[in-house]
Fold these 2 entries.
Entry 1:
Amino acid sequence: MPLLMAVAAPLPALAAFPDKPIRLVVPFAPGGGTDLIARAMGVTMGEDLGQPVLVDNKPGGGTIIGTDLVAKSAPDGYTLVMATMAHAVNPSLHKKLPFDTDKAFSPVMLVGRSPNVLVVKPDSPIKTVQDLIAAAKARPGKLNYASQGPGTSAHLAGELFKKLAKVDITHVPYRGAGPAITDLLGGQVDAMFATAAAVAPHLESGKLRAVAVTTAQRSQAPALSKVPTIAEGGVPNYVADSWYGLFAPGGTPPAVIARLNAAAKKAVQTEAFRKRAEQEGLAVGGGTPEEFGRYVKGESERWSKVIKEANITVD
């Protein structure tokens, strides 16, 4: 009996997690693609965990402000971050970060991957990739494109486009996709390499028009299935995926990570989440924390080369 009791002793602690709400930090302003995906995940994960998963928007610093908050949080599973490609590229973009990316976070799960979409207003004369290239070459530095912040997928997608298409287009960073899209709708900026999730409602309503997608193949999303890739539009070898993934603070117990991973897997397979994912062109993720960690390492290495070759800096 004493031996059995000793073995069983740790189980109540694991069974008790979570016993209070979980904070899901979104390092962008409300209304963008990351925010929308996080809120959908929060609802579905909360149902499995038996505790609400509350989204907390902490924009700024190219995701560093919100990410740093999580890095410095207790490693107990009650604070998570919905990370994006910026998580993998910030170490290459910034001379110094307030945390060690490799040590400050524990991967939980890849939520999904999606294209960015080159979008313009419906009345824009830019209808194709070649139109954008021609306009940019006719007026070097005069055209501009918005992003949800320095080092984000929209920013790097634009910089990669500039490099491969050999054009000069000015980058205009915002504190989140929401404000960037607002100015695009208002005509303050010319274009945006936005996440599919962020612009899906505006494409459906006709307030924005999709010119091209940034992935190697066309999107399977109904609203984007007929939209050509940038490579098809005349920029060979152009590929820029966007992704979302969950991280906890470094040192979070493996049992807690496993519980969060299980809840996240169930969440992305729910009908409600998959329906939203389909509408927004998101290829649903999953897998183990270890697989997500390896994926992020590969992304970091790939974009590090692009950043160095394009001499991209944000400091």
Entry 2:
Amino acid sequence: MNLRRRLLGWRCGAGLLLLAVVAWAAIHQLTQPLWDEPEIVLKMGGTYDDLRRSSSAPFSPEIRGHVWFGIPKVDAKLRFVDPQFGFTTPAARFFTVDFDDNVIFGIRMSPQIEPLLIDDALKVVLDLQDQWREKGWVAKGLQNNPTIVDTPEWRAYLRKGILAGITYWQADEKYQVMLVVGRFEDYRNPTEERYLITLALAKPWTPFDEVEDMYDEPRHFPAPQPK
């Protein structure tokens, strides 16, 4: 009798476990399309509520009445919304959105999940520059910070690890972006050359048209100039 009760109890427990697994699988199947490509969708001057409504990635709680920054709760790509100047990035692990009260005024992120090999890092950088160029962004500060290209000279410059490659782009008087790629010591891959990309986006903060000719002293480690 005891054995029979145990068998019955085991079957009930197994049945409940199977039901739970099936239910979890069904829920996962229904929600998975939403999470294949988690993204943060935002526009400059938009609100926290707009971001939460438009994005498929969960976001940190709002802090009203302060200048603050929020972060996605999962790795997420950026879809920057603008009728002319919009662009997208690969998924990012470091990703912050700056708010003044609940209004978006800036973005700082690293459009990658982990430090990248130089081939992969340059692929990300060149894709972003191509998007900006095609959408009408204009490279700025070229005298000291030329656009980054995949050449032996640029690879050698970045491998030194002394200075990072920096490029600035501007969209009329609406936005300015700074893109940086530099060598990074990755403790998980100590024998490999890894690189970190940083992207900062806000309203224009450097008046290049006014200051570009003020600094004409040569750098000790100048970035490769276009041929």
